[in-house]
Amino acid sequence: QVLLMVGLPGSGKTQWAQKHSQENREKRYNILGTEAVLHQLRTRGPDVEELDAKSRDLLTQQAAQCLSKLVQIAPRSKRNFILDQCNVYNSGQRRKLLAFKGFSRKVVVIVPTEEDWKKRLELRKEAEGEDVPESVMLEMKANYSLPEKNDYLDEVVYGELGKEEAQPLVSRYKEEARKLLPPSEKRANRRNNRNKRNRQNRNRGQGYVGGQRRGYDNRVYGQQQYWGQPGNRGVS
């Protein structure tokens, strides 16, 4: 079985995934998310110094590479998985689920009330010391797509608000974001320039991460990777 989490940053995806995994221990879920990978990459011990900003960015990029590879490898294993990323783009949902042919494929949509979402974002900002870049959030809101059951998706589960309540909220987010974003032509030019820089970085051996900016649907926004999966804070 594979459960694909869908939701904006700070919506509550990681909390739901961890709770579901704990409540269904017999399924031995493998949670593939940023925090799980970062946990394995961090040095542990009583005398470990706090990482500086540059080291944290490097570690985050390494985690992005690892997670991207793990998601590619996962469909070859007979295990139960939870893909704990934002996955708000329909294209990303489709691509990942198609790879898990032969699995029971479900999507878990997490849409809290706007008030709860704002509170969770504030809690995460306090915990991480940084906020989700506005341009990233607007792009995701503008392209947020609630999935429907189809030939590669067996079931859609709503973890907080039901579909009837979530749909108008997501539609409003999309409309508001599209009004604030620059014209699509300029956005397309920015994406083309960004892709060109990524290709140049690959040629220079700088290690294109190829994953999500903090788990955001295999899109890279700028040079710094931005991950949106907190750990045990319960506010993802």
The CATH homologous superfamily is named P-loop containing nucleotide triphosphate hydrolases
Which CATH C-level class is it? Alpha Beta
State the strand order across the main sheet.
2-3-1-4-5
CATH topology: Rossmann fold
Counting DSSP H or I runs of 4 or more residues, the number of helices is 8
What would you call the shape?
A: globular
Q: What is the string of helix and strand elements?
A: EHEHHEHEHHEHH
> What is the radius of gyration computed over CA atoms, rounded to a whole number of angstroms?
17 Å
Helix share bin: 40-55%
Instruction: Tell me the structural class.
Output: alpha/beta
Summed up, the domain count is 1
Mean pLDDT: 80
The CATH architecture classification is: 3-Layer(aba) Sandwich
Low-confidence stretches: 204-236
GO molecular function: RNA binding
InterPro entries: P-loop_NTPase
GO cellular component, one term: nucleus
Biased composition (Basic residues): 188-202
What do these coordinates show?
By secondary structure, the protein is α/β, with parallel strands linked by helices. The chain has a single domain, classed as P-loop containing nucleotide triphosphate hydrolases (Rossmann fold), CATH 3.40.50.300. Helix content is 47%, strand content 9%. It contains 8 helices and 5 strands. Helix 6 packs across helix 7. It starts with a strand and ends in a 33-residue tail after the last helix. The C terminus is likely disordered. One of its GO terms (biological process) is alternative mRNA splicing, via spliceosome. One of its GO terms (cellular component) is nucleus. Pfam families: AAA_33. This is Heterogeneous nuclear ribonucleoprotein U-like protein 2. It comes from Lepidothrix coronata.
